[in-house]
Each structure stands twice: as structure tokens, then as C-alpha cells.
Amino acid sequence: MEFIEDPTRMSESSAAARKTGRTVGFVPTMGALHEGHLDLVRRARAEHGQVVCSIFVNPLQFNNASDLANYPRQLDRDIPLLEGAGCDVLFAPRKDALFKDFVPTQYDLGGLDAHWEGPSRPGHFQGVVNVVERLFFHVRPDAAYFGEKDRQQVTIIRHMARTLHWPERIIPCPTVRASDGLALSSRNQRLNERERAMATVLYKALGRAAELAFLQPLPAVLAAAKDILATEPEVVLDHIGIAHPDDLRPLVDWPETDTAVALIAAQVGPVRLIDNITLHRPAKADR
Ligand code: AMP
Predict the structure, then answer these.
(1) For the whole prediction, is pTM greater than 0.90?
(2) How far apart are CA 241 and CA 238, in angstroms?
(3) Mean local confidence (pLDDT), 65-87
(4) N or C: at which end does the chain have fewer Cβ atoms within 10 angstroms?
């Protein structure tokens, strides 16, 4: 695997791959890699001749200084994991190089940041879109892979790619979970054993919503999910709600669509965790 720090060299590497007929699949990450990230890399590997993964802890998307300071950084561990997953190039730019001559853009996010993570993390999605634009500019991928774990993020990136006519295809990929349902996240490393056990309540609450979705009135389903959360009083809820699958606008009634999305964010010990699940309208025979 090639290790590239210099953004200009990154562009040259993708151009060289393309010259030999290879398409470029790209997985942007902040490192401290786990199976969720590696799943994206493997998917890119299956679909492209050249696979690039970036590791860059993006200061623009942190709205909490201690979260940024405590974000795990472990490049030595990440490198063999990427090699094992079949990555060709690790792009790990330095902050000053990536942001050379950079003037942040205030993007029109089409109101997609008005709910859920948007109000809780002011500026977060602007920071994400700004850095994704920078990374795309240097990597020039044909397709980029994002986890549905960060559902609002991938919804916003897909919207930006469409409205700004970015040439990259945006590919959402399913959330990878631990065997007890907890969505894998680099931040999980900061949970102690007790907190790690408590954190499973997020998935349990979403699971309850998935069982009852479209069968009971939406507010009753939300109430049932909140009852599950209440079984772990130390888990501090930030938000839970049900949203339209296309733009994640909050819903008060079930939509006409066959799916909806339940989203949750909660503080568990030192970390704020997010998760979401797709809710399916049961087939007629099951109702
Ligand atoms: P991060 O390093 O947390 O910024 O994540 C990099 C990419 O990996 C993003 O597209 C995330 O949505 C994705 N990702 C993180 N955790 C998971 C997971 N458990 N399952 C699938 N994708 C994930």
C-alpha cells in the first residue's frame, strides 16, 4: 500500500491509475479504523481497480474541543488493517497542506441540517462538506463510500453532489454492528466496560421502533422506544425521532413510503453516540 501525505501527489496517483484504465473508489475516514470502515474499503475493492482511503481528523467538523483532543489517533494500527482490506493508497494529508489556500465555503445544505445532528452540533455539517470537497478535489474518485451509520451525513453529501454537480458517485453502505447490536464507532473505544454495556440500549430502542413501525401510530412507537431508553437512566438522550427516508425531515405520521428512519443520539459516559435504523412497512400478510 502506498502512503501519501502530499495532496498534489495524491492527484497524480489517481490520474496515473485512471490512465491505466482503473477507476478510483474512495473511502474517507478519520482513522481509528474498525470493521465498519473496513467494510467500506472492501466494497470499494470489489468495485474498483484503485482503492484510496483517507485518514484525516477534520478539525472543521468538531464543535467540541475536548472531543477533538480525545479523538483516537492510531495510524500504526490502521495501516495493517487497510492493507488487509485491500487498500491501494492511504492518503493522510497534513492539515496545513490540505487546507493550503483554503477559504471555507458556507454551503447551502438545502435545509437538510435543520434537524437531528444539525442543531446539536452547529457548524458540523458545513465542516464535513468543506473537507469532503477538499478530499474529493485531491483524490478525484469515481465513487465514494459512506456509512449509513452517519445517515444524515450521507444524505447531505449526496444532496451536495447532486446540487453542485460533483462527478463522484456517492454510495451509502449499511451500518456494521457489534454482535450485541451496538453500531461500531471509533468513539466506542472511550467507553469503559459498564458504559459499553449501557450503550446497547440505543440499538434496543431503535429495534423496538423497527418492530412496531407502521403498525402503531408513530407517536406511540416513539414512546415505546423511549421506554426502552429509560431502562438505562445514565444514558442521556439528546434526540430520538422518526424521519422521512429521502431527506430525513421529522415525521409525526407514517409516510406513504415503504420505509422510514429512526434516529437517535445520546451521551453515554464521556461520548456522544449516534445511531439510526431503517424502519420497514410490514408486508401485507404480516399485518
Ligand atoms: P469516521 O471515521 O467516523 O468519520 O467514519 C468514516 C466513514 O465510515 C463514514 O462514512 C462513516 O459513516 C463510516 N462508518 C463509521 N462507522 C461505521 C459503521 N459502524 N458501519 C458502517 N460505516 C461506518
Answers:
(1) yes
(2) 10
(3) 96
(4) C
- What lies within 8 Å, CB to CB, of 225 at 6+ separation is 205, 206, 208, 209, 240, 262, 264
Q: Which CATH superfamily is domain 186-281 in?
A: Pantoate-beta-alanine ligase, C-terminal domain (3.30.1300.10)
> CB of 130 closer than 6 A to ligand 1?
no
Roughly how many angstroms between the first and final C-alpha of the chain, as a whole number? 51
Query: Can you tell me which atom of ligand 1 is nearest the CA of 177?
Result: 19
Report phi then psi at 280, rounded to 5.
Answer: -110, 135
**pLDDT value at residue 284:** 78
Q: What is the CATH number of domain 2-173?
A: 3.40.50.620
Dihedral sign for Cα atoms in the order 131, 163, 27, 119: positive
Residue spans of the domains in the chain: they are 2-173, 186-281
Separation between Cα atoms, residue 99 and residue 188, nearest integer Å: 29
What's the average model confidence in pLDDT over 19-23? 98
| Residues labelled as active-site residues | 37
Q: Do domains 2-173 and 186-281 have the same CATH topology?
A: no
Q: Does 149 sit in the ligand 1 pocket, CB within 6 Å?
A: yes
